[in-house]
């Protein structure tokens, strides 16, 4: 009897101890004045999946709460309305070669037949970036980003890319050419379709300095028939010390290389579509592109908060926005803007200078939009902007949202 008694007592103590350990905070320590404080961390890694399910009767504008949709066109006369183009899928969502005409920003990303499309024409420069509310997380080793996309390219001056950048370094509109915007992020990885053919390179940025990993110069035309209706799977495998990108169904990879340690292991994921005067330099008939996207997977991933504003842009005539929810603690205001002396105020408070995100000032020009990223107090729901004219037009701000890590 005593032996059985002590066995029961020991079991209860062991189970109690295990439960106590389970509920303890992570042993991460931070300095806090003269005290040391244990901070509970952790959000478990997850798999992010987006299948774009939906079959509207006509092309339907796509801009959900859990994705950030940024549409940019450089030329002043396109700030309020895009250049018209024939975008793939008919007015009834009939598949290509059927088309419908778009010229609104809201219609540049749209849904038909259980997938989404990006379509933009810019005689100056235009781009679209789609960003889910999950970071790719390769802190435990390797992570994978997969996505399906169409393969018919209608102009060499119309292409796609993929960015992975640390949360505080990412830019709403990252760009690696001097013709527009404010350059690449301070640190990041870009997978870019080559401007001379349907193959891909990888560019790694460290403190704004690029290292190019040349991809195998074999276009996918060699092993598949480019199609506007079939969507093929592309895959990026990434760790701190290795990059691999290609099309697994064809067992083909443009890049498979060891790299110097990135120094970071979680990143914002951005899917891009670029248009740079797509009718120029055509050796055969060409047209602005429509890219069809489906089945995005990020594994493992870390969720974060996105809060959208009720307007796509603000200007002198319409200077304020309302957020769809109050800003949480440790949140950042994110937008792109043009014009000197841009200022912001929250909930009718004091005006303060808008804070530029870290960018390479060698790219700065008066006529280029810049990226902004600044703390926003918890509880804010109203944000107002003001600024001064520049030589080409008045100030303008677009792509306003609030982001916060858990």
Describe the model.
- The protein has 406 residues and is mainly beta.
- Helix content is 5%, strand content 43%.
- The chain contains one helix and 30 strands.
- It has one helix at residues 2-22; strands at residues 28-32, 35-39, 46-50, 60-61, 67-73, 85-88, 99-102, 109-112, 115-119, 126-132, 134-137, 143-150, 158-165, 188-193, 200-206, 209-213, 231-238, 242-247, 252-258, 266-275, 290-303, 305-308, 313-314, 320-322, 331-338, 343-346, 352-353, 370-376, 382-386, 396-404.
- The strands form five sheets. The protein has a 17-stranded antiparallel sheet that branches.
- A hairpin with a 2-residue loop joins strand 1 and strand 2.
- The longest helix has 21 residues, at 2-22.
- It is globular, with a radius of gyration of 24 Å.
- The termini are far apart.
């Amino acid at each position: 009897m005593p032996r059985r008694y002590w066995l029961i007592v020991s079991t209860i103590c062991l189970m109690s101890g295990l439960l106590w350990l389970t509920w303890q905070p992570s042993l991460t320590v931070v300095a806090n004045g003269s005290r040391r404080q244990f901070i509970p961390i952790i959000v478990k890694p997850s798999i992010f999946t987006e299948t774009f399910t939906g079959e509207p009767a006509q092309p339907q504008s796509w801009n959900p709460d859990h994705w950030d949709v940024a549409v940019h066109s450089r030329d002043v006369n396109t700030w309020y309305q895009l250049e018209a183009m024939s975008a793939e899928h008919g007015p009834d969502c009939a598949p290509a070669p059927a088309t419908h005409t778009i010229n609104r920003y809201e219609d540049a990303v749209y849904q038909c037949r259980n997938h989404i499309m990006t379509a933009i024409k810019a005689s100056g420069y235009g781009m679209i970036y789609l960003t889910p509310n999950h970071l790719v997380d390769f802190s435990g080793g390797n992570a994978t980003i997969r996505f399906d996309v169409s393969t018919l390219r209608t102009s060499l001056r119309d292409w796609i890319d993929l960015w992975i950048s640390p949360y505080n370094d990412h830019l709403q509109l990252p760009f690696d050419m001097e013709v527009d915007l404010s350059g690449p992020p301070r640190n990041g990885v870009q997978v870019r379709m080559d401007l001379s053919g349907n193959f891909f390179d990888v560019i790694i940025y460290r403190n704004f300095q690029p290292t190019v990993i040349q991809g195998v110069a074999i276009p996918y035309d060699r092993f598949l028939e480019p199609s506007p209706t079939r969507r093929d799977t592309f895959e990026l495998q990434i760790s701190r010390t290795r990059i691999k990108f290609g099309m697994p169904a064809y067992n083909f990879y443009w890049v498979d290389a060891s790299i110097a340690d990135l120094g970071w292991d979680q990143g914002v994921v951005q899917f891009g579509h670029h248009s740079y005067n797509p009718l120029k330099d055509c050796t055969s008939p060409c047209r602005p592109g429509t890219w069809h996207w489906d089945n995005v997977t990020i594994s493992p991933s870390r969720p974060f908060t996105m809060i959208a504003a009720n307007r796509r842009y603000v200007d002198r005539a319409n200077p304020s926005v309302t957020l769809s929810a109050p800003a949480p603690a440790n949140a950042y205001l994110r937008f792109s803007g043009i014009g000197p002396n841009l200022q912001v105020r929250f909930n009718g408070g004091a005006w303060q200078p808008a804070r530029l995100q870290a960018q390479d000032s060698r790219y700065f020009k008066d006529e280029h939009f810049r990226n902004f990223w600044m703390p926003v107090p918890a509880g804010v729901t109203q944000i107002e902007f003001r600024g001064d004219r520049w030589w080409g037009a008045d100030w303008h701000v677009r792509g306003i949202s609030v982001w916060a890590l858990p």
